[in-house]
Design goal:
207 residues, mainly alpha, Rossmann fold, three-stranded parallel beta sheet, two-stranded parallel ribbon, 9 helices
Length: 207
């Protein structure tokens, strides 16, 4: 089970879009000082983080009064794989493994990113938290995923870049957890957390 943003695809796209481009567009659209727009939106982001609405394009389009899907498409040249991630997925396809994507990404964002990367083709199935009505940070998500996929928590590897999500998977009983510590190539690697850590998926090809 693999996360998408920050595990397979470079989180630099999302961070640039939400932390820089969206505040600039919001300031222009609403006649707000850019610094005030950043403060206002960063506070809202902090408030919503970890909730399903945090990942919902419809919620943010309504709140910001901006077409957030169109903003994604405007910047789609920035969408791309993390180094080594596509090669890792191609290698998995050579083995008798069931490979599923487990993502909080909104389905429309997933489609936009797939248009650029073709990432969907590498998976046997894709599960978005929006289909279950619960984010990966909540136990309800894992119960719903188990009903849909019937995976064995003792023999399934789950890779993600977010501590809160890994904590939730651990609480559910997933035993093999791996944390990606360098999800954003435009930033420094994160400090190691409480899990076995790799900088990026491509490193597993050398093991």
């Amino acid at each position: 089970m693999l996360d998408m943003d920050g595990t397979i695809l470079d989180l630099a796209f999302d961070n640039f879009l939400w932390l820089h481009h969206v505040p600039e567009r919001y300031a222009e659209e609403h006649g707000v000082d850019p610094e005030e727009a950043r403060k206002r939106l960063y506070a809202k982001f902090e408030e919503m983080m970890g909730q399903l609405q945090w990942y919902c394009l419809d919620h943010w389009s309504d709140f910001l009064k901006l077409d957030v899907a169109e903003i994604h498409r405007d910047l789609n040249e920035r969408i791309g794989y993390l180094p080594g991630a596509e090669e890792f997925l191609k290698t998995l396809a050579e083995h008798e493994l069931r490979v599923i994507m487990v993502t909080n990404s909104h389905l429309e964002v997933l489609d936009i990113k797939d248009e650029v990367t073709g990432v969907k083709a590498h998976f046997d199935h894709i599960y978005s938290s929006h289909s279950f009505g619960q984010p990966k940070e909540r136990q309800e998500f894992w119960h719903a995923l188990r009903e849909a996929e019937d995976f064995d928590p003792a023999t399934t590897l789950f890779v993600d870049d977010t501590h809160r999500v890994l904590d939730s998977a651990k609480d559910y009983g997933v035993e093999m957890l791996l944390e990606v510590s360098h999800p954003d190539t435009s930033a420094e690697p994160r400090e190691s957390g409480n899990y076995v850590t790799i900088r990026r998926l491509g490193e597993m090809l050398d093991r």
